[in-house]
Amino acid sequence: MKLALRWHVLLIGFVLGTSGAFAADNPKPSTQAAPLAQRPGHAGIASANALATEAGFEVLAKGGNAFDAAIAVASTLSVVEPESSGMGGGFMATMHVAASDRNVFIDAREAAPAAVNPKDYLNPDGTPNRDTALKGPLSAGIPGEPAGLVWLAKHYGKLPLTESLAPAIRTARDGFKPDSRLVGAIQEEQQNLERWPASAAVYLPNGKPPVEGEIFRNPDQAHTLEQLAQYGDSGFYSGETAQKLIEAVHAAGGNWTLKDLSSYRVKERTPITVDYHGYQIITAPPPSSGGVAIAEILNILSGFDLSQMDQVHRAHYVIEAMRRAFRDHNDYLGDPDFVKMPLDMLLSPYYADGLRQTILPDRATPSSMLAPTSGQDPGMHTTHFSIIDADGNMVSITSTVNYILGSTFVAQGTGVVLNDEMDDFALVPNKPNVYGLLGSKANAPEPGKRMLSSMSPSIVIGPDRTAVIGSPGGSTIITQVLEGILAFIDGGDAQQVVAHKRFHHQFMPDVVNVEPGAFDAATSEALTRMGYTLKNREPWGFMNVVIWDRRSNKLDAASDPRRPDGLGKVQ
């Protein structure tokens, strides 16, 4: 009874917005980082595939900048890593333009077609239809990646698309040796790929998945990329490619129109910026939920000195901050062009003060005391790459087709597998999507609306060092990037940041996912006594990081050791 009364008092204190008692206990100045006054003189790229990283350097060697290299990396990943991203999907980019000392955010997120109908994603009994939400053309939003790459070339690059897309076109036409991840993804989704003749033709040559070490080609995608290189937006969103997309989607029961394609637009938005103990974090705004959640978590944690805590209490406060940020993620966030969100409140340090007061120093907060709901185990797909060029331009891009191999639906003649991003909408309010994330009407599908995302491409600027950071991982993207930022602030180099052991809490289910080695036995036992349910989980994520040490003017790049196929390289 006394514990319940204590919670009641604490929660009333939060609602009334009283100031944070913890904030005054460990004051640390939150200051603007020093301006970037120098250039590295060399470049660093970290991506999920060695061929993509090398494609970026190939374009830099032709006189391109980080933005041209980003086009080469993203398009090559579309060819060699279609299980995670591609021309049939979308991306979000947080960028620093060195010449103007300006930070920008590019929203090339997919959008709902005009004919979207929530009833298409329901079973007769009103429960979510997971098949239409995840497989086939009804699961696909209008792709944004092709338009995003054209936008980068037109507004920020130095080279024509014919140059920056050349490595991807060559790789698709001449072929490459698929890695174990791609082969495994095709094997896992073989039954779904077999449902669509064009999908089977691309990914099941001779009726079987490709074999590691043998050459795999996608000449149709090479042609699609050639059309994009020659004609820009119209090479994908109108003309030959658009017609192929519409015919294939309609033939399989989808509802796209040529107007859906021709009306798609890239949007530049103002990135979210948050100061944390002398570090400036530049990150993704809505329709990404990631930047808001990361900012909210850091604002809560800013009232503590994590460096002075033992592992148990550090983990405790980080988990509790995660819990509260994901609760708000579920309730408030959506496409800013459709939904009015209380961002001033969510990003306010005063709001964080109130949330901080609801955290007990020695006890877990049951999520049921914040709001009752349900969820599932988070997933891990998507891709991320980071680039810093010789002039100090920076690109942090997270790209996706959502779930593994997206919708598994390839539009005949395009070689492009379409996304299944419609599942990222709250198709049924307060019912979890494939990643266990919940949503409200703020993220309900509407014509032209962009679905909420966890993608969190970020740039971190400290007094002496700068990091470009991000990761795939569904709902775990947010916590991975958060923990990577904290590891960087603690002084970690690129390899230490990407290798940092992870844990994850997303409000519901009320479980802490723990990577083996993240906590020692004593810490796990202490957290369990505090009321946490810990769940061991196989390693997750594919973080790619480039760090610029402005004292030595050296770059450091690393790809996640959990996946052997990535490459972080400096030259």
TrEMBL record:
Entries under PANTHER family matching the protein: GLUTATHIONE HYDROLASE, GLUTATHIONE HYDROLASE PROENZYME
Q: Which GO terms describe its molecular function?
A: leukotriene C4 gamma-glutamyl transferase activity
* Gene label: ggt
Q: Which InterPro entries match?
A: GGT_bact (IPR051792), GGT_lsub (IPR043138), GGT_peptidase (IPR000101), GGT_ssub_C (IPR043137), Ntn_hydrolases_N (IPR029055)
PTM comment: Cleaved by autocatalysis into a large and a small subunit.
Q: Please verify whether the record's keywords include RNA-binding.
A: no
Instruction: Tell me the pathway.
Output: Sulfur metabolism; glutathione metabolism
NCBIfam families from the entry? g_glut_trans
Q: Which Pfam families match?
A: G_glu_transpept
What is the name listed in the Swiss-Prot or TrEMBL entry for this protein?
Answer: Glutathione hydrolase proenzyme
Family indicated by similarity: Belongs to the gamma-glutamyltransferase family.
- Record's keyword annotation contains Acyltransferase: yes
Reactions this protein catalyses? an N-terminal (5-L-glutamyl)-[peptide] + an alpha-amino acid = 5-L-glutamyl amino acid + an N-terminal L-alpha-aminoacyl-[peptide]; glutathione + H2O = L-cysteinylglycine + L-glutamate; an S-substituted glutathione + H2O = an S-substituted L-cysteinylglycine + L-glutamate
Subunit structure, as described in the record? This enzyme consists of two polypeptide chains, which are synthesized in precursor form from a single polypeptide.
What is this enzyme's EC? 2.3.2.2, 3.4.19.13
What domain of life does the UniProt record list for this protein's source? Answer: Bacteria
Q: Which UniProt keywords apply?
A: Acyltransferase, Glutathione biosynthesis, Hydrolase, Signal, Transferase, Zymogen
Q: Which organism is it from?
A: Dyella flava
Which stretch is the leader sequence? Answer: 1-23
Lineage of origin: Bacteria, Pseudomonadati, Pseudomonadota, Gammaproteobacteria, Lysobacterales
